[in-house]
Protein 1
Amino acid sequence: MQRTIATFMVAASLASVAGAQTSPPPAIPAATTSSQATPAFSLDAALGAAGMPSAGTPVSGTTNGGSATGPAGSTQPALPSIGAATANVAAATAARRVAGLRPNPEFQTQVENIGGSGAYRGVRSSETTVGVALPLELGGKRPARVALATARLTRAQIQAEVARADLRLRVTQLYIEAAATERRFEVLAEQAGIANNAFRVSSERVKAGDVSPIEQQRADVLRINAQVAADSATRQAQAARANLGTLLNTAVMGPLDRAWFERIDGYGPQRSVDIEGTLALVAAQADVRTADAQVRVARSLRVPDLTVSAFARRLAATNDTAAVVGLSIPLPFFNNGSAFVAQSQAEQTQAQALRSLAIVDTRQQIASAQTEVANAAATARAAGGPGLAAAQEAARIARIGWSQGKFDQIALLDAERTLSQTRQTYVDALAAYHDAQARLDRLTTPAPTISGDER
């Protein structure tokens, strides 16, 4: 009779645990499909909290430095990285205005032949000269300065887009981490519940004399280890959610979007990517244009500037007035500007080499990311499909066989361990897939059109 009761308790307990969901701690909202439940905090919501448009929102084709806020119509202030990039654009815009200004004229005055001796005592023989000196820039210095400032402004605008793309990637990765850690917590918490129940059943079977006490001790060790793993997963999930909230500067409320996390898009071969229009290549090309403009400035500085002056001189001795005209030009004996030209040309060569390197690096990174996406997607489909179904069926059979005394405890524990590992592999593959996809999207982010007419 005792064996019959114990067998019934084993079957009922394990069946209930197999279908039960362990409740998450208060800091981790439970995922639910009820229409009355709190709406899921989606990735689009996280990007919106960061002032970034959602994946389906088109990005404006022209960038400018006039705003440090989020998308159009949003009152969300920009995060520090976006604020810094926007301030850099504003500074480059002001620098371009400065570059287009002409040199200021100079007002000059001087008094001669005063405070001497004899006829030059006092101011009786003084000569007062008053006039204006106007520097004249030669060699195309002003257009060269404007071209350099314009190139730097373009680079600052591209850098602002790079900062937005980097922020999108960072938010996405933190969201993936938070979603993955919460799914791992659910798996480990369920495993801890199964281990707790297995320990209780083992204790009952030992009392009934069906098994040796070693099974109870083994189940107790597994119960303790499973609980430690579940507690660790809880802390990791709470930390990941807190990190996401810290970056967004807002509380992350509600469950995360499990449907998005478990969705795998795309089948077939990877599409080819034209890297010429990506942010990385456009930024490298902007650096080349800036270096070209710097060479132009350096060459223009080799042409000396003229300073034209016109004065009126009053002679106190005769009370007459005379005109004085002056012209000055520097003599480039010691610094003729050739060293600055050589420096600028070397920097130009460096920028061109870095652009070629960026082409190679971007192609390699895109190819690697595409491979990671494909591999992670295949692993997730296998682990979450036939692999998970087979592990669940094996665990179900092992539970029934153990409860009926047909399988030993080792077979049951091995089946439960395989099921837990398969679930964790599935979660890890999903996290790796979304992370690789996010990095691929960042690498292939198209650069917006930078309009020079609005400058």
Note: The chain is about 60% helix and 10% strand.
Protein 2
Amino acid sequence: MPRPTGRVLTLLELLQSGGTRTVAELADRLGVDGRTVRRYVDHLIDLDVPVESVRGRYGGYRLAPGFRLPPLMLSDDEALAVLLGLVAGRRAGLMTAERTASETVSAKIRRVLPKHVARRLDTLLESLAFTDQPGGFATPDAGVLLTIADAVRHRRPVSIRYTDRDGRRSERTLHAYGIVAHSGRWYVTGTDPEIGEDRTFRLDRIADARTLPGSFEAPVGPDPAQRVLSGFATAEYRHEVTLRIYGTVEQIRAHLPASVASLEEHAPTAGKDRATERWLRVELRAERLDWLPPALASLDRPFVIERPDELRDLVIALADRLASYARQA
């Protein structure tokens, strides 16, 4: 049986996870009765841990809001989740500009873990292999990221200093709807009130951000992630491509995702769902066309090229090469 001190620490851990816990819930988790739970709460209060009593039908106990509780207590599973999350975030490029932050927090967690837990985690991390290379992306400034996140949450305009891909610098106001992580980069999407259009900006290209007075209403329609993907698919590039492909939405999206192409029914039919094969119009913009013929070949569905003629020539050339290779003994 656990010793009373161990149960008191378990109670502290339960309260630290947030929210209000009923006496019945705490008694069940600790394996004691309600009177004992109240005695353990008194022990915590004697140790200057601010446990609040919440009255009412759904009352119970909780920690005082804003209380920062040292030391942080993690179970084996929680420590593993934190360390693996740091490793995954670092490899995916989804870290802030303070790249050493993930290394120092990993070291702090390892330093306070019991030796047997630390050895188990080290064994896992040492034996873990990845099939892809670590992300080499530029990372956003932590201050910029947190400022924009606060502006998104409270619907406050934000002023940003931005450098575009051509090196041009500008200062603009943004009504930011959301922050999106996509393919190893951070983006913020919102409306530029000066031109009345939706814009998407890479966070690592924002040098400074500050909230402004006022507020705005978020628009109805697609969520921030959909807006970012749609922006990628309709961005200005050298070639505008229009295709008609016969297949299901899932078949086409497996090779031409939403970040690459927009999709609509060529001849809409009532009652058709995403799993029904039909002619779909596909539109995309691309700086180069050489990757499209292999993508269409791997799709292996009937298609019609509406534009440009250059793409049709590239597809025919690829088909001729494949046929030539297949004839070789």
Note: The mean pLDDT is 82.
Protein 3
Amino acid sequence: MAGRLGFYDRGRTPYFASRMEPRLCYCLYVPREYDGQGGEAFDLVVLVHGTARSAETYRNFFEDFAERERAIILAPLFPAGMSAPGELSSYKLMRDGGIAYDLVLLDMVAEVAERYRLRSDRFLLHGFSGGGHFAHRFLYIHPERLMGVSIGAPGIVTLLDPDHDFWVGVRNFEAIFGTALDIEAMRRVPVQMVIGGEDKETWEIRLTPQDSWWMPGAESLAEANRLQRMAALRESLESCGIAVRHDIVPGAGHDGRAMVSVVQHWFSTVLASSRKG
């Protein structure tokens, strides 16, 4: 249970190995005024890195936010090459190579809850690019754990399409994840989509039948850029009654740093609403 803390348990913490899967790890930012012997409970914000694995950088961007909003920041690190030498994307699909990345993240959250006082078992989640892959698919699997989710410019999106298998759609979702889609629970989660207005490059996300990601139904998004794929994802969610705030940052390309202030502002509004309730 939460209690006395050491020097490295506040501020920018070291990386800690996951107790569930020690090949994966996480770092934290804990506000300096957090008192291990006190009574104040803090909110939790989870930031999921993109393909470049800049977990610590994203954590550092949110230091001032954490201090201001009385929140703890958790930034997981999902290394490349987990399911095959040189692979970059296994965590984006949530379950790959024998690793359930969503469940490992939830156990990381449980570890944090055992060491620090958290206000809720629900948390805010943001991911950009590869992290945006993770964020919207995590929403599908675990909506009951989310206070809000911010989906940043994923290159390849999963639509709520009952006519195609995962990853394109969700026809076999329950067979893969062991749980049925809970659309009603998803409707209760505030959702933000955020992307740069100039995020139009397709070199990294173009799909062809020769790609490992290719599957039936992929052709519908094959030539679309991230802006177009985000629009398709928004339309898919809204068609199921899931409200979406869609922020497009003028002049920005595929740069997660340009999204930070917009995400933080939205997170602040979600936290304020949650605390009133």
Note: The chain is about 30% helix and 20% strand.
Protein 4
Amino acid sequence: MQSVTIINPNKLVFGENSFAQFITDYTALGLQRLYLVTIPPAAAQIAEGLHTLQQQGVAIQVNDSIAGEPSFNDFEKLLADARAFGADSVVGIGGGSVLDVAKLIAAQIKNTQTTAEVIGIRNLKERKTYLACIPTTSGTGSEVSPNALFIDDSGAKVGVISPFLVPDAAYIDPALTLSVPASITASTGIDALTHCLEAYTNNFAHPVIDLIALEGVRLIARYLKRACNNGQDLEARAQVALGSMYGGMCLGPVNTAAVHALSYPLGVSYHVPHGLSIALLLPYVMEFNLPAAPERHAQIALALGAAPGQSDIATAREGIELIKKLISDCGLPASLDELNIPFDSIDKMAEDALKIQRLLKNNLRPVTQQDAVNIYRAAFNKVVA
């Protein structure tokens, strides 16, 4: 059996009152200058806790300027701000983009490497600053992963991937997700499900990761629609958050594959939110990959709630239909047509997707440019010639 390396936060707190536990834990560390990357919607929920820290003598610099997928230019501005503040700790409270920025700030604030030098896999060699991540959405799993994604100067989406980006501590409090709108709950939830699904149906799949990947699929498939229908359903929020955390745990040892690679051009060129681009492509990449691993896709289908069919292929196809139904039931678009993406952009998107070999190498079937074209056409609900 091939080896697998799993690096999780030194401390992981999940469940009710996790944010309060963060306040207690942070106070005990004796740190004095906290640089907080967050989002305006979280302000009311975290205000009392931050006031407690300030009463303990902690100086807090809040930056809530990250509104979408971050660029390296965005990151450099916040890094300069954190350095000028003299931060001895960095905390991210928000969605995946906020957490990614916080993670790289913590790594770079005292690092001798330039930003250009740390881009890529395992190029970042150190982090000397305390880092905690607290998600307010259930999607990227960034709070437990070694990944941080940014838009570079050319408009491409690139990653900094390093064990030094895994936080010292992660606090997942489902109560912080209660105010997330249904549309964002849906798209981030499908993204989290896809992290699990692509880890299980992957060239580098591993039995240790298979367990949490299948459980992540099961939890999100069962509870996502409930969380979308009633944002105050704390049980549903907690179960989706747990599935999202499992998805993040899959990213380091195994990572994602063609769904994510093909989604990047939609985000970069047409500013389609990441989770939505994943939802639009997932069923069609599953159909493409199915012949390469019917048994694996059948197991995914069972986790999604399908009844066993007469064959693995039949079971797996039922799973794909369940994915389509879940996406529809959660109110997400079913076709690229609905987003007014130009049909004649397919060739360029396919060309750009083929550049994401760090993910495509994980895919069960090799993806040619024509394959990518065909998948995009399917996502437009157009007949493939």
Note: The chain is about 50% helix and 10% strand.
